[in-house]
Design goal:
Belongs to the succinate dehydrogenase/fumarate reductase iron-sulfur protein family. The protein has 253 residues and is an alpha+beta fold. It folds into two domains: 106 residues, Ubiquitin-like (UB roll) (Roll), CATH 3.10.20.30; 135 residues, Alpha-helical ferredoxin (Fumarate Reductase Iron-sulfur Protein, Chain B, domain 2). Helix content is 32%, strand content 13%. It contains eight helices and seven strands, in the order ββαβββββααααααα. The protein has a five-stranded mixed sheet with strand order 2-1-5-3-4. Strand 3 and strand 4 form a beta hairpin. Helix 6 crosses helix 8. The chain is elongated and about 70 Å long. The relative contact order is 0.12.
């Protein structure tokens, strides 16, 4: 009779934001087409470690389970990625699960991504609407612009690009590549363009484009394949033009 196949998970855990991290190993029966989330669910159903000791269920974040919400980001075998699309068969055993290090740990694999959302607030990554009534259909975008803008709109604020970026750390206030790319997206919108100069000036201050080291890790790690470095290059150009406009006191495009 063939020996039953198992998978091994080594999970970095932390009981609270101020606690010390530690690791626990778990052994689970293998099933075809398992992803990391389904393995964590097995631990939640039966929280027993590899030595047979009863422990607390591992805590992690998730929502859509189809790589849309961005909530389930974690480090898997040293690489930040989405755990819902991370198939067990893709990894060498044991599979090591860790929380992303760029963000403060809340508990186990859950991190506080407020830093990223605060960056989006800083660059005003939204389209202001004047009034609470129906304003009718908005202006149309040219098809060629709509196509590349759609690629930028795929950002799900998962935080993977910030985790991969060496310039996003405790010693830097760099807003990160996700927010930079969103400035390009909203400045391209026919209505969002009205606040273009305001967004660009937010990139010209502390923590903006000047803090980018051009490592290009972000575009390599983005699970949606967003052309982040292309956006960064475009924002470098636009902020240079904005600086000239500010110097000569012109608000014209």
């Amino acid at each position: 009779m063939s020996e039953e196949k198992n998978i091994r998970l080594i999970v970095t855990r932390q009981d609270d934001p101020e606690g010390e991290s530690y690791t626990e190993e778990f052994t689970l029966p293998y099933r075809p087409n398992m992803n990391v989330i389904s393995a964590l669910m097995e631990i939640r159903r039966n929280p027993v470690d590899a030595n047979g000791n009863v422990t607390s269920p591992v805590v992690w974040d998730m929502n859509c389970l189809e790589e849309v919400c961005g909530a389930c980001s974690m480090i898997i075998n040293g690489k930040p990625q989405q755990s819902c699309t991370a198939l067990i068969d893709q990894f060498e055993q044991p599979i090591r699960l860790e929380p992303m290090k760029t963000f403060p740990v809340v508990r186990d694999l859950i991190v506080d991504r407020s830093r990223m959302f605060d960056s989006l607030k800083k660059v005003k990554a939204w389209i202001p609407i004047d009034g609470t009534y129906d304003l009718g259909p908005g202006p149309r975008m040219a098809e060629n612009k709509r196509q590349w803008a759609y690629e930028l709109s795929k950002c799900m604020t998962c935080g993977v690009c910030l985790e991969a970026c060496p310039n996003v750390n405790d010693n830097s206030d760099f807003i990160g590549p996700a927010a930079l790319s969103q400035v390009r997206l909203f400045n391209a919108h026919p209505t969002g363009e009205m606040n273009k100069s305001e967004r660009l000036e937010s990139l010209m201050g502390e923590g903006g484009l000047g803090s980018c080291g051009n490592s290009q890790n972000c575009v390599e790690s983005c699970p949606k394949g967003i052309p982040l470095t292309t956006s960064i290059a475009a924002m470098n150009r636009d902020t240079s033009l904005q600086a000239f406009k500010n110097f000569f006191g012109s608000d014209k495009a």
